[in-house]
Amino acid sequence: MLATPLLSLAIWVPILAGLVVLATGADRNAPLARMLALLGAIAGLLVTIPLYTGFDLNTPAMQFVELHRWIPRFNVHYHLGVDGISMLFVLLNSFITVTVILAGWQVITSRVAQYNAGFLIMSGLLNGIFSSLDGVLFYVFFEASLIPLYLIIGIWGGSNRVYAAFKFFLFTLMGSLLFLIALLFLFVESGGSFSILEWHNLPLGLSTQTWLFLAFLVAFAVKVPMWPVHTWLPDAHVEAPTGGSIVLAAIALKLGAYGFLRFSLPIAPDAAHELSWLLITLSLIAIIYIGFVALVQEDMKKLVAYSSIAHMGFVTLGFFMFSALGVEGALVQMISHGFVSGAMFFSIGVMYDRMHSRQIADYGGVVNSMPKFAAFFMLFAMANAGLPATSGFVGEFMIILAAVDYNFWVAFAAATTMIVGAAYTLWMYKRVVFGAVANHHVAELTDINGREFLIFVLFAAGALGMGLYPQPFTEVMHSSVNELLRHVALSKIQ
Amino acid sequence: MLLMACVILIVDLVVKERKRTVIFVATQLTLVGAAVITFAISSGDIAYTFSNMYVSDLMGDLLKLLVYLTVIIVLFYSRDYILEREQMARSEYYVLALFATLGMMVMISANHFLTVYIGLELLSLSLYALVAMNRDSVPATEAAMKYFVLGALASGLLLYGMSMIYGATGTLEITAVAERLYMGQANKSILVFGLVFLVSGIAFKLGVVPFHMWIPDVYHGAPTAVALFIASAPKLAAFAIVVRMLVNGLIVLAQDWQTMLILLAVLSMAVGNIAAIAQTNLKRMLAYSAISHMGFMLLGLVTGIVDGDARFALNAYSSSMFYVITYVLTSAGTFGMILLLARGGLESDQIDDFKGLNKRSPWFAAVMMMMMFSMAGIPFFVGFFAKFSVLQAVVAAGYLWLAVVAVLFSLVGCFYYLRIVKIMYFDPPTNTAQIEAPLDMKILMSANGLAVALLGIFPQALMSVCAFALLRSL
Q1: Is residue A1 part of a domain?
Q2: ipTM
Q3: Shortest distance, CA B304 to any CA of chain A (angstroms)
Q4: CB–CB of B357/B368 below 8 Å?
Q5: Residue A482 in 3-state DSSP?
């Protein structure tokens, strides 16, 4: 084990960098603020790389563990650690932060320091969520991460931003407050411990488990978001600035799914089995119904937002079939969705910066004026539709394979959405990029500049790399996923 | 007690002075001196003096120190506000503040129902006068009248309750009452009857529903400096008398008063949080928020004794104490911010006055945001751990439904705190004037904000101090 507290660095380097950026103050120092923010984000990414290179593939146990007393009065610890499930998200998050800072480089011109600081602080908090092994610590990061996103949507968002910011905040808070009570209940049940790992081994009766599971479900389903509590997401996405959408889609949505793996399944395994029909039904509704909803959207961001919900439906479907293939497929899907949806939102952002419209109807023939952009956009649209050789394919394919094992009709229903998914993405692509040049605004568009090109390359490397060679991603998950499933298969009722 | 005498002596000295700065300094020195004396004579043991009329214990000492500290902060915040207003620019503000402080001291260390009453009246009478200080202001006079009439009624209820308890137990000394109740030598029905009046009186002083009517009017009508005073230190003293009378004195009746307090707590959280949403005046909004916070604080007190089992008592009462302390800290900061923005004789107590504060002063907007998120109970701010520890006590006592009700109403409450943040950050400023304030106030305001954040990251120290103080005092 390494002596350096890598996880603490992953959390606190971005947060401190964020505070330094804040200190640059007014907009006249904006160039300085941008540079510092980029340096901070890159430093934040660099400190997470040893997490991957130093990761031990053969153990399902937590690695890079840090354990300190925090609030002894309630037996709360500053307890960090990652396993094969959470480690990749820390990396993904730090990576996305770099792209987000770059994405806002020229676009954000007011309150630059606050904007960049918001993203850096949020990045640290999100890393904290993924590496917390203490219930209270997890919760604290989980809720605190709402604040920066609330401000980002509200300050730099679109015309209806206030509504979207409030809806986002209150929806998520509603879920997490019940989650807090579940945590306190577990604290009492376990005789005074907030350790998530100890809770994993805590025997609980079925009815208790069911209540806990439902409390967790409310919190995480809002976050995922699952049908029918998804309505905040399209609003938040549409109103958020590009960077906010990227973080929201790429990272924030993963928190709910991650919560299922870290809390719901291991703490209440029997209830999870009992209620898996409910979760699978909800997931299928999300996949199919939301897929059709996406088809009729006029607003590109809304379309991608709905497609995110459908993709996350695949993730929850993968979890609740309790097979290694399904869970790993879901994890792959989560990471892949991080790259792909991030890139999709960035693409829309690129067009929006030039045209100040997200309506599909305002576009047409973009390929004529922005050929390079069209090429990249094509790649990500394909990945979003789940084309083989892109990362979008790997995860969905694994999940559908697992579903065939589980129940043919579930698999059938899930697989049909490959068609719907392709339909809404490619149809949007066709209407926006191909065809005759719609109006003189489109004709005057300038192609992407070096900065945007760089961001596209970063995203493309992720999406293609994962699609062509998923091994480095899946191998780190194996032992943790197997351990998780072994654990979930055991009953906790005594 | 020594301390009491000291305070009174120095108060007399101040009254003779007429120069404003001198009075301000002298007042502050008085408070610091009194705090030092309290700290010096605090032995940590329980000691009774003045024929058992007073008690000195660690809980009392801790609360007293905090009251001194709060009053010192309050006076710093109020100073300029008062100087700018002719009606109020007199030494009376400081003198009355000192008398009110003295009243709180008496309340905190009372070991006799009558001592509680004397302290309470001293505090209340000073506050009535303070509220009415701005003589020409119609809302202030109206607020003072309401406060006085309702306050007198509540005092009456309290006294009536005390007389019933005297009738049932034959004594008014809190420890003796507890003893006699424990021995079972009291008429239960008279006692419970008296208890109802006692609880009503207390509920009035705490300002919980349905005895909350005065709070919005007084907060709204009173000069901001006075509202700041009312919204801070007296809450600590009110907490102290609740513990003294109900826990120290009538613990045997815990089942009875807990049921009453649960009702009050739930009603307060509901009415406070829902009514606060509709307010456009920040002071009025904070008044409703105060009602809901007091309701939340009561939750800790109702979970002390479960089925006659006192195992959870310490945990529960100390979480309430932590809650009330952090509330006072946050509330002082919030009102301080209103005072900071109220410059040149103008008020800034409309919510819209905070519009675009982030553009005018990012730092103070950030401080205000910390206060708001802390009140809403969002981590990493101290308000979260306050809610956390109270909820923990509630869940530990097995009242899961109560915890769910509490969080649902905090969700409602979150809305109006978020609205303040929205006003400050999302809206363009209507007033672009620079914020001018004396350096000491700026520093203190910043320190207050940082305290809210730092205690939110390291709450352990204050939590264990509360727990330790109660452990040594109960």
Answers
A1: no
A2: 0.82
A3: 15
A4: yes
A5: helix
- The beta-carbon contacts of B449-454 under 8 Å, at least 24 apart in sequence, are B449/B333, B449/B366, B449/B367, B449/B368, B449/B370, B449/B371, B451/B329, B451/B382, B452/B326, B452/B329, B452/B330, B452/B333, B452/B370, B452/B371, B452/B374, B452/B381, B452/B382, B452/B383, B453/B370, B453/B380, B453/B381, B453/B382
- Measured between CB atoms, does A118 come within 8 Å of chain B? no
Tens of pLDDT, residues A124-155: 888 888 888 888 888 888 888 888 888 888 88
* Contact predicate B70/B328, CB 8 Å: yes
Residue of chain B with shortest Cα separation from A110: B359
Residue of chain B whose alpha carbon sits nearest to that of A163: B422
Instruction: Give the tokens for residue A417.
Output: 């959405």
Query: A177–B411: do the CB atoms touch at under 8 Å?
Result: yes
A494 within domain boundaries? no
Question: B210 at the A interface (CB within 8 A)?
Answer: no
Structure-derived torsion over alpha carbons of residues B173, B175, B181, B183, reported in degrees to the nearest 10: -120
Residue A68 in any domain: the answer is yes
Secondary structure tally for chain A: helices H, strands E: 24, 2
Would you call A180 an interface residue with chain B, using a CB distance cutoff of 8 Å? yes
Instruction: Tell whether B426 lies on the interface with A, counting CB pairs under 8 A.
Output: yes
Transcribe A67-124 into DSSP letters: EEEEEGGGTEEEEEEE-TTTHHHHHHHHHHHHHHHHHTTTT--SSHHHHHHHHHHHHH
How many distinct structural domains can be found in chain B? 1
Parallel, antiparallel, or unpaired: how do β-strands B54-56 and B47-49 relate?
antiparallel
Bridge partners, B417 (sequence order): none
- CB of B391 within 8 Å of a chain A CB? The answer is yes
Bridge partner list, A66: A80
In A, minimum Cα distance to B382 occurs at A140
How is residue A406 written in tokens? 């589980």
Phi, psi of B263 (to 5 degrees): -60, -45
Over the stretch B42-51, which tens digit does the pLDDT of each residue have?
666 676 766 6
User: Per-residue DSSP letters for A163-175?
Assistant: HHHHHHHHHHHHH
pTM above 0.80, yes or no: yes
Antiparallel, parallel or unpaired: β A63-71 and B54-56:
unpaired
Q: Which domain holds residue B422?
A: 2-471
| Burial class (CB within 10 angstroms; exposed 0-12, middle 13-18, buried 19+) of B418 | buried
Which of helix, strand or coil describes residue A397?
Answer: helix
Low-confidence ranges of chain A (pLDDT < 70): 1-3, 494
The pLDDT value recorded for residue B73 is 85
Helix (H) or strand (E) holding A65: strand A63-71
Inform me whether the pLDDT recorded for B27 exceeds 50: yes
Candidates A202, A201, A176, A174; CA nearest to A188 is A202
Domain extent at residue A117 = 6-489
Judged against a pLDDT cut of 70, whether residue B18 lies above it is answered with: no
Quick one: pLDDT at residue A1?
Answer: 44
Give the model's pLDDT for residue B15.
54
Q: What is the DSSP letter of A5?
A: -
- B414–A contact, CB cutoff 8 A: yes
Question: What distance in Å separates residue A277's CA from the closest CA in chain B?
Answer: 27
Count of CB atoms situated within 10 Å of the CB of A399:
30
Total domains in chain A come to 1
- Nearest CA-CA distance, residue B130 and chain A, Å: 38
Of A360, A283, A372, nearest in space to A329 by CA:
A283
Is it the case that residue B136 has pLDDT exceeding 50? yes
